[in-house]
Write a structure and sequence with these properties.
Organism: Dillenia turbinata
Strand content: under 5%
Helix content: over 70%
Shape: elongated
Distance between the termini: 103 Å
Radius of gyration: 32 Å
Keywords: Membrane, Transmembrane, Transmembrane helix
Protein name: Transmembrane protein
């Protein structure tokens, strides 16, 4: 459920107006997803618990889309030059790894909730527990429930891992305002992800001791922890909108982080079609050594006395 929060200037892809519009749309979709996710968890406390699962499916789909946009945006910012990650480790651990972890976690969350939704269907229940083969089919049902709960735990572990990667950013150029906004964004994301993960683990351990079906697999402990986690995600999303606005105001790159390890210079050189200065200097020296230097014949200067004698004889 986490969105990438970075203070890099490598997000400069495409036309400026279209890029700014895409960033605002991405930040707005994230806030909308947190509201939908909150509604899905709150619906589990009402009689419309099944419709709440549909809201959870919609929220996970939007979150996966937002993180895929972040991944493509940062890859476009470096012209899809993946070898640059070897020079800048943070580029691989943050801009590349975070969206992948969050998108993968959202996909697992979607599949786990989908299994619970199918399990809550009366047709599926009748299919698994029919007369004559009730024991075998109920075992299949229990396996499906177990897989669903394990997928939810794995999804939330990926969210926490992505939040940890998101917080591993080193600042060298960013001013204090940008750093405060960064901290205000990914700290709620990290706390919310931890609440979700702890709630899912406690819920899995509790439900493994009893035999429940479908909607009853989501216990009250995880539901309430999920509600508080959604509030933290919503706060982080609001601050993320402010961060996007601030970063667009300083789009000149003076207060944003550059690529490190020579990756920024290599990116600029690739865009301009120029060789590095060291290689260019070496190439010039090699060319100068191969080309013979033309020799100009030296003419002995005429003495000043001879010039005067020659002029007087004329």
């Amino acid at each position: 459920m986490v969105k990438l929060a970075t203070a890099r200037d490598s997000r400069g892809y495409g036309p400026r107006q279209g890029r700014n519009r895409a960033e605002y749309v991405s930040a707005g979709l994230y806030i909308f997803a947190t509201i939908v996710l909150l509604g899905g968890f709150m619906s589990q406390l009402s009689r419309e618990a099944k419709s709440g699962l549909v809201l959870l499916l919609i929220a996970s789909t939007i979150i996966a889309f937002v993180n895929i946009h972040d991944l493509l945006a940062h890859l476009a910012g470096i012209d899809f030059q993946l070898p640059l990650m070897e020079l800048d480790t943070q580029l691989a651990l943050v801009e590349f790894a975070v969206p992948i972890l969050q998108a993968a976690g959202s996909a697992l969350f979607f599949i786990g909730i989908l299994f619970l939704f199918l399990e809550s269907n009366s047709y599926i229940k009748n299919f698994f527990c029919t007369s004559g083969t009730q024991t075998m089919n109920c075992r299949k049902r229990e396996k499906l429930e177990k897989h669903a709960m394990n997928m939810l735990v794995a999804a939330l572990v990926l969210w926490v891992l992505g939040s940890i990667h998101n917080s591993c950013q080193i600042y060298q150029r960013a001013d204090g305002h940008v750093q405060i906004l960064q901290q205000s964004v990914y700290i709620p994301f990290l706390m919310g992800s931890l609440l979700f993960m702890v709630g899912s683990i406690l819920n899995t351990r509790k439900q493994s001791r009893v035999s429940r079906l479908g909607l009853h697999l989501l216990g009250f402990t995880w539901i309430w922890m999920g509600i508080f986690g959604c509030f933290l995600f919503f706060i982080g999303g609001l601050v993320n909108v402010a961060k996007v606005f601030k970063m667009q105001q300083v789009d000149d790159g003076l207060h944003l982080e550059k690529l490190r390890g020579g990756a920024q210079e290599q990116l600029f050189q690739a865009r301009e079609g120029q060789l590095p200065f060291i290689l260019e200097d070496q190439r010039r020296k090699i060319v100068e050594q191969k080309e013979p230097v033309p020799t100009v014949p030296l003419i002995a200067p005429t003495p000043y006395k001879d010039v005067l004698v020659g002029g007087s004889s004329v």
